[in-house]
Amino acid sequence: MVHHLARLPLSHITRDESGYRVTTLARTGADLAAGRALPEALVLLDAAARQMCASMVAHVRRGDYVNAQLVRAARELLSEAATVRRAISLKSAISLTEPSRESAAESLSAGHFEIAGLPIPLFQHPIRTPYGTYYPDFYWPEQRLIGECDGAVKYENPDAIVLEKRREQALRDQGERFVRWMALDIMLSPAMVVGRVACALGL
User: Fold this and answer.
1) In angstroms, what CA-CA distances link 178 with 85, 144, 147, 167?
2) CB of 148 closer than 8 Å to CB of 123
3) Is there a contact between 89 and 36 (Cβ–Cβ < 8 Å)?
4) What is the chain's alpha carbon radius of gyration, rounded to the nearest angstrom?
5) Which residues sit opposite 148 in a β-bridge?
6) Among 71, 78, 87, 125, which lies 20 to 30 A Cα-Cα from 3?
7) Distance from first CA to last CA of the chain, Å, rounded?
8) Would you place residue 52 in the very low, low, confident or very high pLDDT band (cuts 50, 70, 90)?
9) Residues with Cβ < 8 Å from 185, sequence gap 6 or more?
10) So what's the pLDDT on residue 3?
């Protein structure tokens, strides 16, 4: 095993809440994502970019994660960190980074869809219903297809389940279609999930 030592640029160092010197979110994201396959890299890069966008505003709102200026700034910081650490292969993953993705499973799914060549969806795109605005994990507007990556935590609250069902039915009444998969499925059986989504897309 070969170890390489180098001095970090000052711009890649910050301090945590306790005052300890740590690497910045961008540098940490680039360090952890370097050398990983696209789906796993997006899990790390999306999470870093999401935190960076939140740190750029006084009071974070949902719209801040899709704000073009904030998203561009986060990607530029990640790209600069990747360049300095000579992880040039990360550039393509960084260009696909989306702070709006809310979970590791969503990021993992997006990576596998990209590799499979599926059409690029919208992420957390607002769709209004009589029961409020719905923000699907994935949305393919041409096919009017909503993709939802579900985790067990999402269904711990019975009231949340009822509201989810009402909104889903309202969306179906509006002509939207659904395809669902579990977080565990995309982690253990990504090919099965990709096949299910491709079938729903008519591919």
Assistant:
1) 41, 9, 6, 12
2) no
3) no
4) 19
5) 180
6) 78
7) 45
8) very high
9) 192, 193
10) 58
- Express as a percent the part of the chain with pLDDT over 70: 93
Q: What is the pLDDT of residues 122-157, one digit of tens each?
A: 999 999 988 888 999 999 999 999 999 987 555 566
Query: Within 34-157, where are the H helices?
Result: 38-55, 68-84, 91-95, 104-116
Tokens found for residue 54: 């939140």
- Domains, the chain, in order of start with CATH, read 1-100 (no CATH), 101-203 (3.40.960.10)
Q: What angle do CA 149, 152, 154 make, to 5 degrees?
A: 70
87's tokens: 């992880």
3-class secondary-structure state, position 179: strand
Q: Are 70 and 119 in contact (CB under 8 A)?
A: no
pLDDT, position 155: 56
Whether the CB-CB separation of 33 and 45 falls below 8 Å is answered with yes
| Residue among 25, 27, 33, 34 nearest 53 (CA) | 25
Choose among 66, 68, 85: nearest CA to 24. Answer: 85
The pLDDT of residue 164 is 78
Cβ–Cβ < 8 Å for 112, 39: yes
What the block records as the tokens of 123 is: 């992420």
Six-digit token pair at 5? 């030592």
Its sign, for the CA torsion 73, 75, 77, 83, is negative
- Is 127:134 a contact under the CB 8 Å cutoff? yes
